[in-house]
Amino acid sequence: MSIPLLDLKAQYGAIKDELEAAVLDVLRNTQYILGPKVAEFEKALAEYCGTQYAVGVANGTDALVLALDALGVGPGDEVITSPFTFYASAECISRLGATPVFVDIEADTYNLDAAQLEAKITSRTKAIIPVHIFGQPAKMDEINKVADAHGLKVIEDACQAIGAEYRGRKVGTLGDAACFSFFPSKNLGGAGDGGAVVTDDEELAAKVRALRQHGSTKKYYHGLVGYNSRLDALQAAILLVKLGYLDGWNDARRDKAQLYNKLFAGAELVVPVALDYVKHAYHLYVVRVPNRASVETVLKEAGIGCGVYYPVPLHLQDVYSGLGYKLGDLPVSEAASHETLAIPLYPELKPEDMERVAELVKRG
Ligand SMILES: *Cc1c(COP(=O)(O)O)cnc(C)c1O
């Protein structure tokens, strides 16, 4: 009777034959790193997103690092991002020797508050990384307007939002480049690590392509200090199969989110706010409850999965103690980190299980 936060076995069971055939094909073919399967996946991903280029890399974190590197971000530069996200959104900035600058979030969407951007821009600011947190696109028109006014690059951290739309446009097309993660639990997940950078900028795509392969465009000739960050063919084959199901899965996530919203009507908690001009990808269904610890206990005792995303906002992480932030600096993120809780949501989740989850959340 337990209900997991995410059930990858249900997904696997539904498309087992197709996945296994795709994997066997790669095994027998023995072209394991990059090669035609990865090229095929990159083409399909670019078509899906509506971008000119897609470059497969080893994981979502590397997608961010390589995109920033290709844009020339380095020591002395500042890059603005959200403090209410997975660490990689800021780690990529630090990895390149640049400094993350955190701007607080909106209380309803948990996304970067565009109205607070301008105040954090300095002569060293090079780029902005909006994160489409939990699958909902950030307010890109407002963010791009500020970026354009200051000549800043915009890189979408779309790791949680593949397939989401903003004013009729898919994420991935809303900035200078966008980064995806194919970590198994993401809306489009591989059987291991994987990631991609998508862009319409030919030069940027070429640079990321070189960087992922030791800064090389011709074997054993190196023009850049690069990385070893390649997507492998097994992941590409799996992702190609799953890409065909992604829109259906995201539709199912949206339907289930609507059902939860109905089940929670009138309850003392805050359900996710979806802007009317976006198509939310509901990577996670996150409620806000003042009594979070007690809700967690009730759910855990009943065998129901739940998760705190994220318990410590990034400006208060140990690693950033040298940046000079203190408790109270970014109050909206800090409050969210104390009250948000993700409850089970996946395309195969059964309505009767959702009723049980909702009852227990309300009881907590
Ligand atoms: C998952 C995730 C990443 C990192 O992706 P990996 O593939 O795990 O490296 C980056 N940013 C956000 C917002 C994520 O959710």
Note the topology.
Elements: H1 8-29, H2 35-49, E1 53-57, H3 60-70, E2 78-81, H4 88-95, E3 99-102, E4 125-129, H5 140-150, E5 153-157, E6 165-166, E7 169-170, E8 177-181, E9 195-199, H6 202-211, E10 216-218, E11 221-222, H7 233-263, E12 278-279, E13 285-288, H8 292-301, H9 331-339, E14 340-343, H10 351-363
Parallel strand pairs: 2-3, 2-4, 4-5, 5-8
Antiparallel strand pairs: 1-9, 6-7, 6-12, 8-9, 10-11, 13-14
Pyridoxal-5'-phosphate binds near residues 61 and 193.
Please describe what this structure looks like.
The protein has 364 residues and is of the alpha/beta class. It folds into two domains: 236 residues, Type I PLP-dependent aspartate aminotransferase-like (Major domain) (Aspartate Aminotransferase, domain 2), CATH 3.40.640; 118 residues, Aspartate Aminotransferase, domain 1, CATH 3.90.1150.10. It has ten helices and 14 strands. Pyridoxal-5'-phosphate binds next to helix 3 and helix 4.
Jot down its keywords:
364 residues, alpha/beta, Aspartate Aminotransferase, domain 2, 7-stranded mixed β-sheet, 3-stranded antiparallel β-sheet, 10 helices, globular, binds pyridoxal-5'-phosphate
